[in-house]
Amino acid sequence: MQDAMTLEQRIARLEALEAIRELKHRYLNACDLKDVAAIRDCFASGAVLIDYGPLGVFHDREPFLALYSELACVPRVIDLHHAANPQIDYQDPDNAQARWALHYQNRDAETGVTRQLGGFYQDRYRRVAGQWRIVETVFRGHFEVMRPKPGPISPWP
Question: Which of 30, 79, 104, 129 has the smallest CB count inside 10 Å?
Answer without folding.
Answer: 129
